[in-house]
Amino acid sequence: MTRSDDLGKLVLRVALGVLILLHGIAKLGKGVDGIGNMLAGQGLPAILAYGVYLGEIVAPALIIIGLFTRPAAWVIAINMVVAIWLVHMKQLGVLTDNGGWALELQGMFLFAAVAVGFLGGGRIGVGGRFN
What we know:
Blueprint: H1 3-30, H2 33-41, H3 51-65, H4 69-88, H5 104-119
């Protein structure tokens, strides 16, 4: 592995972590009651909504610092699958007027998390070479 591989992984994980973390910080202010209601509407316990804090606060923070990067990335990926399932299913096959996918942001978050899950965080971070 080269130094540029580690720098590329650092850029990918910090970008993913920061951008997801911003969504989590917003949810700290307004809570997760809306998500709980959506889950309850699907027959699931509303308390599962608190899992969004794992997927949008804890996991991104771990990815940013480079600790437990692979498991944290898979938590984000699962979080994104649930978000798409709960909120965006009607947009799954929709293209915008500009020709882009209606779920570009969610898709980019999901696939970036999957990439980090497979690649790991590289040697630049708290986890270092064990990442």
